[in-house]
Amino acid sequence: MIQISGGQWRGRQLSGFPKSLSPKAGFRPTTGRVKEALFSMLAPELSGARVLDGFAGSGALGFEALSRGASFVMAIEPNPVAITLLKSNAEKLALNPLQWQLFSGSLEAFLAKSATHEPFDVILLDPPYERPLNQDLLHALIQPPWACLHHRRVVIEQASQPAVNATLLSAMGFQPRAYGSTTLWLL
Questions:
Q1: Is the bond preceding 128 in cis, omega lying within 30 degrees of 0?
Q2: Least enclosed by CB within 10 Å: which of 36, 84, 140, 184?
Q3: What DSSP element (H or E) covers 175?
Q4: Helix axis angle, 32-46 to 60-67, nearest 10°
Q5: What does the DSSP 8-state code read for residue 153?
Q6: Cα–Cα dist 31/97, whole Å
Q7: Comparing C-alpha atoms, which of 142, 149, 141 is closest to residue 112?
Q8: pLDDT 10s per residue in the chain (187 long)?
Q9: 83 half-sphere exposure, CB direction, 13 A CA radius
Q10: pTM, full prediction
Q11: Is 126 helix (H, G, I), strand (E, B) or coil?
């Protein structure tokens, strides 16, 4: 089980991946410590924000953002098991399409199909730790039309070791914040 830690749904339980499935499929929940640090940093920017939750998994980060004041979350997830879990968790929170939408496919497919989408204020990317992020994909996400030009926050969660995209992310201006075995890269 995953628990929402702040905002209007604080304490609500959401379903997580079975432990037997998580490592095999590349799913691992964001730890409570990392989630608290992340949302403490994002707090001033979440009220009314449009959030893109790339690699949504169980939806824990996107649902936490909604609980803490975001107005809309677009969840992107290609895995059928995760999609079922996302829909179940959204039903538990009684979300409507004005608050939360799911794109069942890859982040690359979403960008290709949604060229006229409104920009996002906050972009959360939590890919499988071993997956390197494509440089062109990252460049596209941090520019309009995907990210708001004047106030945007892009956060990438990755394993501290090995640092899969460290050189690329540093060159793009992302700043690392390490929390044990996890690093948050912030732009």
A1: no
A2: 84
A3: strand 175-179
A4: 40
A5: E
A6: 28
A7: 141
A8: 889 999 999 999 998 877 665 555 556 778 888 999 999 999 999 999 999 999 999 999 999 999 999 999 999 999 998 999 999 999 999 999 999 999 999 988 888 887 667 888 999 998 876 777 778 888 777 777 666 656 678 898 988 877 777 888 888 888 999 999 889 999 8
A9: 11
A10: 0.89
A11: coil
Query: Which residue type sits at 105?
Result: G
- What's the rounded Cα separation, in Å, for the pair 119 and 131? 25
Among all chains, which residue has been given the structure tokens 């890269």?
185
Phi, psi of 186, rounded to the nearest 5 degrees: -115, 135
162, two tokens: 């090995």
Alpha carbon distance 96, 89 (integer Å)? 12
Cβ contact 181:36 at 8 Å:
no
Residue reference for tokens 């004041």? 69
Structure tokens at 64: 């936490």
Instruction: Name the region of 180 (left: φ>0; alpha: ψ -120 to 50; beta: rest).
Output: left
φ, ψ dihedrals at 77, nearest 5°: -155, 130
Q: How would you classify the pairing of strands 182-186 and 153-159?
A: antiparallel
